């Protein structure tokens, strides 16, 4: 059987789990994670990969990626502790969140983490105080056009301020090493990376004129995966990125990349159970034991998941909602499914990223357990 849920098929391993395990649960295909990682490494052979641990921080995933030689990007003491307990070398850990607590900076620096992002004078001051000698890189604000989950506004600075911040950082106990940006999550427009790389080059040139030599460009993450619509293949996106890097940056520049969704997203299938049905204002509703709050938070941002049931028959449109008493808990207003009965199973594909990571126990409903297949 295939690893995921294409063409209405349900992997036998997941279906067997659903017969004996309580739902909701998230089934993770270990081999697919390694295949996705290998695909990205082949597409960008000269880049250093740092898995964005926030995407899915299960210990077994971290250990698997550590064994594969991957680096990690983190933001918190808990993430740091997890990696250290897994035996990850601090030299393979970076922190690209430009808003870090003093406690985290102090702990990461004491552990031996060397790379930190910044995008404000206050962050420079914190890093200078709690992580002197660190290699630091400025977060550049770039267009998030083409991304389904934009990350602009909260982070990043424009070109002129980026130059000022790098110059300021160079006068203290820090070592400015490069530039980072993020085009937004689930980005399907490769030109977003092109524009961001070219903008980064402008900053690079400006700080060189100030006598500051940089050596690293971190192009972030944002690589898309298959949900319900077709996406450009990772090879095509990577090819455009690689060509732009060759045109814009001198040889010898170290390239960092921070994939998350692209590594684990398609490896996960969320198994759920129909707990209720209703007809409201002419629409057919089904209610699952997993919803927006305990697993499918990204649906509020417009993410549409492919769903398949373990029952055959003619399909029609359903509104699919979660189990909580909050009317905001609607996963999708239009899903093609057959006539379902209470107790039937519904499988949600491409659910390995930002599902259990975002989940809460709101209303007392459980966060899905994770099983590996």
Would you spell out the secondary-structure blueprint of this structure?
Layout (H helix, E strand, L loop, with lengths): L11 H9 L4 E4 L1 H14 L3 E6 L6 H9 L3 E3 L3 H9 L7 E3 L6 H10 L3 E4 L2 H10 L4 E5 L7 E3 L9 H11 L5 E6 L4 E3 L3 H19 L6 E3 L15 H15 L5 E4 L3 H4 L3 E13 L2 E6 L18 E3 L5 E7 L8 E9 L6 E4 L20 E4 L1
Parallel strand pairs: 1-18, 2-3, 2-11, 3-4, 4-5, 5-6, 6-8, 8-10, 10-11, 13-15
Antiparallel strand pairs: 1-12, 7-9, 12-13, 12-17, 14-17, 15-16
Helix pairs in contact: 7-8, 8-9
Q: Tell me the series of helices and strands, N- to C-terminal.
A: HEHEHEHEHEHEEHEEHEHEHEEEEEEE
Task: State the distance separating the first and last CA atoms.
Answer: 12 Å
Number of helices: 10
Average of the residue pLDDT scores: 95
Q: Give the DSSP E fraction (strand runs of 2 or more residues).
A: 15-25%
* Major sheet attributes: 8 strands, mixed
Shape: elongated
- How many strands in all? 18
| Spans where pLDDT lies below 50 across 5 or more residues | 1-7
- Binned, the helix content reads 25-40%
Question: In terms of structural class, how would the helical and strand content be classed?
Answer: alpha/beta
Rg is 22 Å
């Amino acid at each position: 059987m295939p690893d995921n849920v294409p063409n209405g098929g349900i992997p036998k391993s997941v279906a067997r789990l659903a017969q004996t395990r309580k739902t909701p649960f998230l089934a993770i295909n270990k081999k697919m994670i390694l295949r996705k990682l290998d695909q990205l490494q082949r597409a960008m052979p000269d880049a250093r990969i740092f898995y964005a641990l926030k995407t899915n921080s299960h210990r077994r995933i971290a250990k698997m990626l550590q064994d594969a030689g991957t680096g990690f990007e983190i933001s918190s003491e808990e993430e740091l502790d997890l990696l250290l307990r897994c035996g990850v070398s601090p030299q393979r850990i970076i922190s690209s969140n430009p808003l870090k607590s003093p406690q985290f900076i102090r702990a990461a620096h004491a552990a031996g983490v060397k790379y930190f992002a910044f995008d404000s004078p206050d962050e420079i001051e914190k890093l200078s105080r709690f992580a002197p000698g660190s290699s630091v890189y400025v977060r550049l604000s770039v267009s998030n056009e083409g991304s389904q989950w934009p990350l602009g506004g909260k982070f990043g600075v424009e070109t002129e301020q980026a130059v000022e911040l790098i110059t300021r950082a160079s006068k203290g106990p820090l070592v400015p090493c490069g530039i980072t940006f993020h085009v937004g999550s689930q980005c399907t427009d490769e030109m977003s990376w092109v524009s961001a790389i070219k903008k980064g080059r402008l900053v690079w040139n400006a700080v060189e004129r100030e006598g500051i030599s940089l050596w690293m460009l971190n192009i972030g993450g944002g690589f898309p995966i298959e949900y319900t619509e077709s996406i450009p293949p990772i090879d095509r996106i990577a090819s455009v990125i690689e060509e732009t890097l060759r045109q814009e940056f001198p040889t010898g520049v170290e390239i960092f990349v921070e994939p998350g969704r692209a590594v684990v997203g398609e490896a996960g299938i969320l198994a759920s159970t129909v707990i209720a049905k209703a007809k409201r204002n002419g629409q057919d509703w089904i209610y699952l034991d997993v919803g927006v709050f305990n697993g499918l938070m990204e649906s509020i941002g417009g993410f549409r998941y492919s769903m398949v049931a373990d029952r055959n028959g003619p399909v029609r449109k359903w509104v699919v909602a979660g189990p909580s008493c909050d009317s905001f808990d609607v996963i999708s207003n239009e899903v093609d499914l057959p006539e379902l009965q209470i107790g039937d199973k519904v499988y949600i594909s491409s659910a390995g990223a930002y599902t259990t990571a975002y989940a809460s126990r709101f209303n007392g409903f459980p966060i899905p357990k994770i099983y590996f297949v």
